[in-house]
Amino acid sequence: PYQRKEFDDDQFPKQVRDIPNDSDFVFHVGDMQRTKTSLCNITWYQHVADILRYSTSPVFITPGDNDWLDCEPYIGAKQGWAHWKNTFGFFDSHWQPHKFKLVRQPNLLENVSFLYQRVLFVVVHLVSDYFDIESERKYRHTEQLKWTKQQIATN
Length: 155
Description:
Shape: flat
Largest sheet: 3 strands, antiparallel
Number of helices: 6
Structural class: alpha+beta
Number of strands: 5
Distance between the termini: 34 Å
């Protein structure tokens, strides 16, 4: 998870600026905040988004537990999830059009897949945390497995 120091020292912004211009896309695998520091404040999400927009390549983001589930003691996981979706849902649309056909899982829009240079990329948001609700985890895992198998079968 990012800490204030990484922004103050220009470490994270420099990492984004250093992404090669010829990269076709970038994956960010989440955990972009330390909840004890950010308290899941919406401005933290917006600050990270502003920096990621400097990338010349499309950025695809999957949420990590620090991005919403760990918000439970501060603003609640539901509000953390709302902040994440409002800030990073469809984040890749800042770089349109893509060089490939992007497919989103209809009922879990943060999950994406695409075929690029004969390689199938499937990104799913796995939920597993002690603030998690078991029924939500089971639902997501069942739906994601079904969707992943469908993506493999159709590509």
